[in-house]
Amino acid sequence: MNNKKKENKNGNIVVMELKNITKIFESPAGESVVLKDINFKINRGDFISIVGPSGSGKTTLLNIIGVLDKPTSGEVIINGFNILSLNESEIAQMRNNLIGFIFQSFNLINRTSVRKNIEIPAIIMGMNRSLRHYRSQKLLELLEIKDKAEYKPLNLSGGQQQRVAIARALINDPTIVLADEPTGNLDTKTGKEVFNLLKMLTKKYKKTIIIVTHNQELAVETDKTIFIRDGKIEKEIIN
Ligand SMILES: Nc1ncnc2c1ncn2[C@@H]1O[C@H](COP(=O)(O)OP(=O)(O)OP(=O)(O)O)[C@@H](O)[C@H]1O
Ligand SMILES: [Mg+2]
Questions:
Q1: Counting ligands in written order, which one lies closest to the CA of residue 55?
Q2: Is the CB of 43 under 6 A from ligand 1?
């Protein structure tokens, strides 16, 4: 694909574009419109926060950005492709290749080692063992959990567990990393440390990261904050 096409006038490379996204959930009580006409572009290296009241649609939006869920209408364009035109297995492959996820509750597998947890998305991708080990070792070092590689996740502190989840999100070298309240289960100091790691990844490694947070103090440290209210983008602020 021609990279020039994806470059906008500021020289930014657009990695994802959401156009007129609407999400409607059906329930016995009737339809509820959870996202309304959402439009935005994500450029390579962006560090974006999404803030908004509980129930405003942040997780729903992140799930659509992460292609875990489809919008009811609108377009999701990743690297120039309208992904909604792909079939389920193509979408799954795209997700595995391009997107890393970090969750509030870490979502680690406790019966296996930290190292194995980090390598799981690479195993799913079919990455060969030596490259997988090389990458997981580098990530264990980068995130300063090298000495915990053979531990079970439950024997780590919350902050260390979230570092494992960050390493797991990075193992396939994704285009975009999505984090839904990654500091929500951590105390203030540990949350700030985890946040600073994400910031370091955007600044030093030019990773594209989108973080949902309730914490305004953290949000202002990202490059751009998108405020969501009642399923709509209320405003976007460059910090
Ligand atoms: N699968 C679903 N079926 C029906 N309604 C849903 C579903 N998922 C989310 N919703 C509704 O969509 C709205 C937005 O939910 P969402 O989880 O996106 O909010 P949020 O902004 O992430 O909130 P929080 O800050 O509490 O995590 C809520 O009213 C929720 O009940
Ligand atoms: Mg949520």
A1: 1
A2: no
